Amino acid sequence: MTHKITRFLTLFLLVSLGGCTVQSEHHVPENAAFCDDLTKHVQQVQQLHVASGTTPCPTKTPDTAAVCNYQTTYGMWFPYLDYADTLAGKTAEQFRESMHQRFQQAADMGINTVYLHLRAFGDAYYCSQLFPPAAAVGDFDPLPILLEEAHRLHLSVHGWINPLRLQNDAGMGALSDRYQIGQWYRDSQKNGTYLCKVGDYWWLNPAYPEVRQLIADGVAEIVQQYEVDGIHLDDYFYPTTETAFDAAAFADVKADNLNQFRLSQVNEMIQQIYSTVKAKSPELLLSISPQGTMDGNYTKQYADVRRWGSEAGYCDVLIPQVYFGFENEAAPFSETVTEWVQTVTYDSVSLVIGIGTHKYGKVDQWAGSGSMEWTTQWDLPVRQATQVLETDGTDGLAVYDYATTFLPESNAERMAQQVEQLGALLRGMPADLL
Predict the structure, then answer these.
(1) CB 115 within 8 A of CB 78
(2) pTM
(3) Residue spans per domain, the chain
(4) Neighbouring-strand partners of residue 117
(5) Integer Cα distance of 90 and 140 in angstroms
(6) Domain 2-427 in CATH: superfamily?
(7) Exposure check for the chain: N or C terminus, fewer CB within 10 A?
(8) Average pLDDT for residues 34-54, to the nearest whole number?
(9) Beta partners for 115?
């Protein structure tokens, strides 16, 4: 609790000062050639996107791979689209330079933790024997570069995966049988059970032990080959409420409550991922970023967040996506944060509040009477960050995402002012290593 008290006093002094502002070696895995000529397996898959003042991390080398995580998190998400455009058709040095600049911007704003998308659609932004390379990946492994450039700036790096979401028909049809998901796709007994199509995309079904094992093996592959500081999951769990998705698995167990069945399957998957992470090192963290509302988690995604926040063995950090304005009619920001503080009660689980810049200057169509708030109240990001840091029971914040913060499509001047003020706020806060 000491760091929370220190953080509160620091924040109080910053607010009181009012007008003062602050100006602002990894190796390639042995099995990379790159990974049996990675370029042969690149999938051309159409993908949709549905998120200073620190103690330096130890120098990272294969022999001294100390984990770098912070007591208070100031995080930022880097979805695959935020760096895929710096990767496709680029050399390793071009990619390195571009990502260094982006990480530097984040660090200059006071960010100390980055969530880097490593697998979004059953495709890998790293050397994998289990999943095909992402379409943007060329003839070099991008993850060692991401790790080296982020750690150079003392940023903690969490590898972000979507465990269940796969590709569309074209992508699945192009998969080699060297990949388990390719074999299942062409197996008449597994297609429709182990993996199912929802909308335009295919999804793994967590109700089967073999599926959960593949997911855990994918996590093990990352933490064993690379010096990440943690693994991160977002809110994509079950893709549908339709009963047909897992009808066969549900019938096999002869249960009578589909909701509870799905909650249990996700819980088993999460526990297995958590055990896999901790088997590598107890210091590595598993963070999960669920939806912002309890209803969305329990009736749409089947994410048992109350259990995860109150019991051991599920996660180290919960980062709810509280992407709502103060005037949101269904889920007002302040009340939603309070609900999460009351939800996360286990001492070893940290609560980091996710805030968004992606709605800045836009109509929030699901906010009811508060739909215009983001188009009129231009200080929302700073106000929300300030409130989070003032709230007892929180352990930091995370911003979704890099592009809408530093490369906004509109209102760029206003957003730049928010970045400057966020930097003044975050750089003045304590950020000690765990």
Answers:
(1) yes
(2) 0.87
(3) 2-427
(4) 160
(5) 10
(6) Aldolase class I (3.20.20.70)
(7) N
(8) 33
(9) 77, 158
